[in-house]
């Protein structure tokens, strides 16, 4: 069943607060007496796919009263978020982007949260926007105008565009929570979005468009709305009609759990969910099937939202989706607000019923959340994932001899990262680790989140071949390879988000492979005919062909292993302005 809750057209309110996201110190294993040692086997030769550039995603909303708080940008960058979805769940189908307004009685659009306001956040964090256009009360022409403004007028280079939000919830199958003024039914949706695709891609053929599907084995999957002229279920109808034109499909995953143990087992359902969806794509999308991506643009724990198990659920769920070929997963959401009731959790935390990563500082039933922008545990689940599975990393196989501990591994340019999640509520779990296809030289850095610490923090003294995991914890080991060459100062990934006659927009991510550096300086070279006219997430100056970029007030330190996202816009004479041929961090050239 779909989750029908206050997240639909919600308003987050409260007082802004500055967020501290870093912590240090040595973390000891916590919990009761250890059980038998669990064997973790890493097979670095078993390739499971590449982490996409939009893997670690997050929902943002036009109704969010804290979206522009000073703590938001460092919180998003600190979690390694790669993608930001906008304008916010069901609100999207009542939202008119040009006026930054919603249909009367259906939600709220904060005057400070218009599209350009959102894009400033996306640019400063380096996250890729995922835009949900208004299908429910909008038109194909309105959606095409949005693409034109974003990618032609403003040169934002937005790639991903969703065609509505949870449209099967418009009453087609009885239950209604989604606003839709058009006739109901899968056939109508399939026919209408064909026009959306045509008009939107006529403006910018390079964009990717995605259609809403139902989630396998979850209502209303498999139902046929014959009263609206449908002759088949939603997914097959949409894929038969539009599969040849689609770039991705959209699924939302809100599992139903009755206990913490039930919640922590939900990741086991993901492989069949994805394989069934992929089979439908292969069956109905014809020769285009191999090009159609799967994106999970909404998920959260849907049970004990503000608990430590919610953080473990986030780590397990994101990695299991990625290992099964999904390109993007987006948490619901940045700020959400408290539910109608609260309760005390066994470990002493308060469950506010708030699906946000960060507190809104709101109150309900006389119980008030902590100050706005205080991270809930789920934030640290995404933060762990963001530092572990970086874009371009190669996912490799792992096995665990006991389901109490789940394991994941990725190969990077500098070695191998291993993530271990302990599902045991009261028991510390000793693990032994063996490797095939990789010879670890040692642990270069480690982080751990647990029920004892309730935040992600560095850990010292861990061994690559065995350790004891605290109860309810996430542990990340970053390992260097034996005999490997010394790490370069930095690695860089860069590419144009959009280009035009005489210029382009460049998105850059520089990873610091050395020790933490403060008051950093990045330099890069441009061709003689080009100059930087605008930048974000740094300040810039240019002397001849060399551009010097330095820290802004909120981003003065790049942690060891940390990544700095930034971007700039160039202008110059000639049709093709070349990209930089090199980048350097503190005077040392980056690889990549």
How would you describe this structure in keywords?
single chain, 592 residues, alpha/beta, nine-stranded mixed sheet, eight-stranded parallel β-barrel, 9 helices, 18% helix, globular, disordered N terminus
How does this model look, in words?
- There is one protein chain.
- 18% of the residues lie in helices and 31% in strands.
- It contains nine helices and 34 strands.
- The strands form eight sheets. The chain has a nine-stranded mixed sheet, covered by helices on one side. Strands 2-3-6-7-8-9-10-11 form an eight-stranded parallel β-barrel, surrounded by five helices.
- β14 and β15 form a beta hairpin.
- α3 runs parallel beside α4 and α8 packs parallel to α9.
- The relative contact order is 0.14.
- The N terminus is likely disordered.
Distance between the termini: 45 Å
In order across it, which strands form the biggest sheet? 21-20-23-18-17-16-1-19-22
Strand content: 25-35%
Low-confidence stretches: 1-34
- Portion of residues within helices: 10-25%
Structural class: alpha/beta
Q: What is the total tally of β strands?
A: 34
Radius of gyration: 23 Å
Choose one word for the global shape.
Answer: globular
Main pleated-sheet profile: 9 strands, mixed
How large is the count of helical segments? 9
Provide the residue-averaged pLDDT: 90
Quick description:
With 592 residues, the protein is α/β, with parallel strands linked by helices. The chain has nine helices and 34 strands.
Break the fold down into its secondary structure elements and pairings.
Elements: E1 38-50, E2 56-59, H1 72-78, E3 83-86, E4 95-96, E5 101-102, H2 115-125, E6 128-133, H3 140-153, E7 160-163, H4 186-203, E8 208-212, H5 234-242, E9 248-253, H6 260-264, H7 270-284, E10 293-299, H8 308-323, E11 328-331, E12 343-344, E13 350-351, E14 363-364, E15 367-368, H9 377-388, E16 394-400, E17 405-412, E18 415-422, E19 429-436, E20 440-450, E21 457-458, E22 466-469, E23 473-481, E24 490-500, E25 503-512, E26 517-518, E27 521-525, E28 530-536, E29 539-543, E30 546-550, E31 557-558, E32 563-572, E33 583-585, E34 588-589
Parallel strand pairs: 1-19, 2-3, 2-11, 3-6, 6-7, 7-8, 8-9, 9-10, 10-11
Antiparallel strand pairs: 1-16, 4-5, 12-13, 14-15, 16-17, 17-18, 18-23, 19-22, 20-21, 20-23, 24-25, 25-32, 26-31, 27-30, 27-33, 28-32, 29-30, 33-34
Helix pairs in contact: 3-4, 4-5, 8-9
């Amino acid at each position: 069943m779909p989750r029908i809750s206050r997240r639909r057209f919600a308003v987050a309110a409260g007082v802004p607060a500055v967020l501290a996201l870093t912590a240090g110190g040595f973390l000891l294993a916590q919990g009761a007496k250890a059980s038998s040692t669990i064997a973790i086997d890493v097979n670095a030769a078993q390739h499971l796919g590449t982490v996409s550039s939009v893997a670690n995603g997050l929902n943002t909303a036009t109704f969010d009263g804290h979206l522009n708080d000073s703590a938001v940008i460092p919180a998003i960058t600190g979690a390694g978020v790669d993608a930001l979805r906008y304008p916010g769940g069901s609100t999207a189908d009542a939202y008119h982007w040009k006026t930054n307004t919603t249909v009367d009685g259906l939600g709220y659009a904060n005057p400070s949260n218009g599209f350009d306001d959102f894009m400033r956040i996306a640019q400063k964090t380096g996250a890729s926007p995922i835009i949900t256009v208004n299908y429910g009360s909008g038109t194909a022409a309105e959606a095409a105008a949005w693409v034109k403004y974003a990618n032609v007028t403003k040169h934002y280079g937005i790639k991903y565009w969703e065609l509505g939000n949870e449209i099967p919830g418009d009453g087609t199958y009885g239950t209604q929570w989604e606003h839709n003024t058009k006739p109901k039914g899968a056939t109508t949706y399939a026919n209408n979005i064909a026009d959306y695709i045509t008009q939107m891609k006529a403006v910018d053929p390079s964009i990717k468009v995605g259609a809403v599907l139902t989630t396998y084995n979850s209502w209303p999957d498999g139902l046929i709305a014959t009263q609206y002229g449908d002759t088949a279920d939603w997914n097959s109808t949409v894929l038969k009609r539009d599969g040849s034109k689609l770039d991705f499909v959209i699924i939302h995953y809100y599992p139903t759990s009755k206990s913490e143990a039930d919640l922590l087992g939900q990741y086991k359902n993901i492989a069949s969910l994805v394989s069934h969806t992929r089979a439908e794509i292969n069956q109905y999308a014809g020769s285009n099937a191999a090009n159609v991506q799967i994106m999970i643009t909404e998920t959260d724990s849907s049970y004990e939202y503000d608990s430590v198990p919610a953080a473990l659920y986030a780590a397990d769920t994101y990695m299991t989706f990625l290992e099964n070929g999904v390109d993007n997963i987006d948490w619901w959401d940045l700020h959400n607000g408290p539910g109608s009731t609260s309760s005390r959790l066994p470990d002493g935390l308060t469950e506010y019923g708030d699906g946000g990563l960060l507190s809104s500082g709101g109150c309900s039933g006389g119980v008030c959340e902590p100050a706005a922008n205080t991270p809930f545990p789920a934030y640290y689940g995404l933060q762990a994932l963001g530092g572990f599975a970086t874009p371009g990393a190669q996912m490799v196989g792992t096995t665990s001899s006991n389901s109490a501990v789940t394991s994941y591994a990725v190969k990077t340019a500098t070695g191998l990262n291993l993530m271990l999640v302990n599902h045991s509520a009261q028991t510390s779990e000793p693990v032994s680790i063996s490797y095939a296809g990789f010879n670890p030289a040692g642990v270069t850095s480690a982080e751990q989140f647990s029920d004892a610490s309730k935040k992600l923090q560095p850990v010292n003294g861990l061994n690559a071949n065995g350790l004891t995991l605290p109860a309810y914890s996430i542990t990340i080991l970053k390992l260097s390879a034996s005999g490997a060459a010394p790490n370069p100062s930095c690695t860089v990934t860069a590419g144009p988000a959009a280009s035009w006659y005489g210029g382009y927009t460049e998105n850059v991510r520089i990873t610091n492979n050395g020790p933490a550096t403060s008051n950093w300086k990045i330099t890069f070279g441009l061709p003689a005919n080009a100059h930087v006219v605008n930048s974000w997430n740094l300040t810039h100056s240019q002397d001849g062909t060399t551009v010097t970029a330095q820290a802004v007030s909120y981003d003065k330190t790049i942690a060891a292993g940390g990544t700095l996202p930034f971007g700039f816009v160039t202008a110059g004479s000639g049709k093709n302005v070349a990209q930089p041929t090199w980048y350097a961090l503190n005077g040392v050239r980056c690889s990549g």
